[in-house]
Design a protein that fits this description.
This protein is mainly β and 284 residues long. The protein contains three helices and 18 strands.
Amino acid sequence: MTHSIATTNPEIGKTCTLSVVAIADNGAYLDAGNLGEILLPNRYVPENCQVNDPVDVFLYLDSADRLVATTQKPLAQVGEFISLKVVQVNKMGAFLDWGLPKDLLVPFNQQHKKMEVGKYYLVRVFLDQRTERIAASSKIDKFIDIWPGEYQEGQQVKLTIGGKTDLGFKAIVNDLHWGLLYDNEIFQPLRVGRQITGYIKRVREDGRLDLMLTRPGKGKVIDFSDKLIAYLQDNNGFSPLHDKSSPEQIKQILGVSKKTFKATVGNLMKKGILQIEKNGIKLK
């Protein structure tokens, strides 16, 4: 069995792998390097845990402002953007459910607009350097890098969907830069905060990024093949869609353009996986 390698410089607000240095009545103490020894409370200690065992943990300040470790995984870490639900608002600010017992605070001065209980907001998780507390901010633009990134056309990237614009959707690329997805190239429902894989379509002269959701060129066919096969398997191996079906119908049912649908069908026919019927397509 291979063991995880301990993280050299663990950070508050990030997951890391730490070694157990002692087992005590209240839990296991972990070697967190420059952060010192950190308690992993009993309820999170793995079964049969022993000294020198590596443990994957997340580091944060508990409700008493003590640095502790947990094996629970938050929905986002420091440096990431995510859409979270407000569960409480009080005199300190708004509190978001991010998957840990201690909710995530958005102070009033970090709210782009006043937050309301029950609503979802796109936020950036950050570490307050003065207090070492993890907090969140809905003032997204101040966390976007002002310097253009170095991207290649066709490069796969992580996208976090931002707001709707007249042209399409803004999206945050790799938690660093804004890019744009154009309406006429979006063939699936999108919502603010959704995280999805995308591709760089074009890097403009001013450094702005045009994005797309399908891999350019031949890769687009490969990308959709698995989804089409799965769709057919879920529908008794048959679909009434064919080359005379309208682009709107194909987009509504499969979430892709007619061009991608036809290219994928052609590719799967060549491989002997599909056959064309008089009234649709069928898995062989």
